[in-house]
Amino acid sequence: MLYLHIPFCSRKCSYCGFYSRVGGDVQTYVDALCREIELRADEVWPNPHKVRTVYFGGGTPTLLSVSQLERIVEQLNRSFNLSEIEECTIEANPECLTKQYVADLRAMGFFNRVSVGVQSFSDADLRLLNRRHNGEDALRAVANLKERGYRNVSIDLIYGIPGQSAEQWQANLDAVASLDIQHLSCYALTVEHGTILDHQTRSGRVRMPDEDEVLARYETLLEWCDSNGFTQYEISNFCREPYRSRHNSRYWDHTPYMGFGASAHSFDGSHRRWNISDTTQYINGINNNNTYFEMEKISEIDAFNEYIMTALRTTEGIDISKLDPVFADGLKDNILKYIMEGYIYIQDGHYRPTEKGLLHADGIAADLIIA
Ligand code: SF4
Description:
Layout: E1 2-6, E2 8-9, E3 21-22, H1 26-40, E4 53-58, H2 66-79, E5 87-92, H3 99-108, E6 113-119, H4 123-128, H5 135-147, E7 152-159, H6 166-177, E8 183-188, H7 196-202, H8 211-227, E9 231-234, E10 237-239, H9 246-252, E11 258-260, E12 265-267, E13 271-275, H10 279-287, E14 293-297, H11 300-311, E15 318-319, H12 325-340, E16 344-347, E17 350-353, H13 355-359, H14 361-368
Parallel strand pairs: 1-4, 1-11, 2-3, 4-5, 5-6, 6-7, 7-8
Antiparallel strand pairs: 8-10, 9-10, 12-13, 13-14, 15-17, 16-17
Helix pairs in contact: 1-2, 1-10, 6-8
Iron/sulfur cluster binds at residues 9, 12-13, 16, 18, 20, 58-60, 93, 117.
């Protein structure tokens, strides 16, 4: 699995705590990114050359011109064997997906999945989130993708936005129903430290909805997905089968991956490494052979804990055969009470969360990990 991070955005969304920057020398960054791919192609990661999925995330990857994207893909092709590739995703912001851009992206022939950062179809929500697009732009973006034959389209939505009524959330879901969408990622709005939203809530200008309201929106979402043919396969992810995100599913089952670009993470099964979250230092590091990343060995306990935390958020659950036998024995004892209380069930060698279990996945996982 390969992840490419494009950390540029045309403005900062009010809730965004990711590393991204407004403005900057995109071309120099693309050059450095290609150089990093070239430099690291021979790293001894488990099966690094058998690439099945590629994901361009951000930031806003669609701020790159199609020729810049092509340049990166050419470098990937030179460094890796992409002949067995299954899924290539690009994250896109609606305002970037003009007819021309989508036509060029399609002609490029690499990406077979587009994940659109819609967040809401309501202009009031989008203003509060400080997004650049409006609801019409979002609808038009999806229409442009469909017109050009993109079959596998995902959209992101946010619920629990201040001022978002139950009716407005329902209207968002109804808008999705009117579109030919294969995948949906829905996240509750959270206040990240240092964001615009953080300042707005601290100063009292914006009031976040209470927990019950947010839970009610989530329950509406689950009901809507159930009656509109969307299968929940992770706490925040839903699809019309068989369009699960293969890339993200592999993160959740702890498949090794390589990440390129500023702030990108990599995981080889026993080490985690992360590139510096600063484009200038990243570019300097690559160009001048200076250190631009940190790395740590993951202990067996940390690896077990991370797997429990992510796997319990998925309907696949915990694959018992993947566990160290000693840890598996301990887990068997601790998980029993959750099985008895109907939060977890055992199927095909997996501990899987029930619907109720999925709702409480984080709390259960926190109780099951090794302190
Ligand atoms: S587009 Fe995405 S990465 Fe960029 S500021 Fe908004 S939320 Fe953050």
